[in-house]
């Protein structure tokens, strides 16, 4: 079908996945957890994509019935391509959710949002009774902020104000995230900007402090969420 083939052209995961073998092990593990008739939240990123491949395989070979609530348009398009039925948070609540992360500390606090889908990912995780975070060893850090800045999704007109407030909270540096391979900034699915903020001290109340700034839609800190972390060596 013409529509499907043009859809395929926009899906470009294949050669760009880091630590692919570890992520494939996680993908198989999460796919085995899926039970007949469940509704499952799927975050975003390459680990989630690989898990969807493994779930699609079970749908094909075992005639498993499963419905996915995707956290991004990209993941939704993958579900279309793989023939995985979808629904939305308007229709129902997920039985459980799986997602990746960029950093995980020893207390299971997370930084997410390298893919820019942090708002819908947090909405999905907050709507779920149970969440599995799938990470390879490279994502484990002794403290958050070791490798990545905190992504902050910002309503465009609020950018100068939010940037000042975030710096006043102790960010040593802030940068508007540039779009990959073209001029201009990243624009999220909700039409907002991503401001990356570097903090040397990420404390337990920082997530809520950032969120309280007018113009901040969401941020990529997940402090104290009841998540189960699955690590692949
Ligand atoms: C996207 C995310 C991803 O879960 C995170 O970036 C991990 O991605 P990957 O599985 O590709 O390593 O938070 O917003």
Automatic annotation (TrEMBL):
Q: Cross-referenced SMART domains, in alphabetical order?
A: DeoRC (SM01134)
Q: What class of enzyme is it?
A: isomerase
Isomerase is among the record's keywords: yes
Give one Pfam family, short name only.
Rib_5-P_isom_A
What terms describe the molecular function in GO for this protein? ribose-5-phosphate isomerase activity
Where does it sit, as one GO cellular component term?
A: cytosol
What keywords is this UniProt entry annotated with?
Isomerase
> Which E.C. number(s) belong to this protein?
5.3.1.6
Q: Does the keyword Isomerase apply?
A: yes
GO biological process, any: D-ribose metabolic process
Family matches, as InterPro entries: NagB/RpiA_transferase-like, Ribose5P_isomerase_type_A
Give the family, as the similarity comment puts it. Answer: Belongs to the ribose 5-phosphate isomerase family.
Name listed for the protein in its UniProt record:
Ribose 5-phosphate isomerase A
Its gene name is rpiA
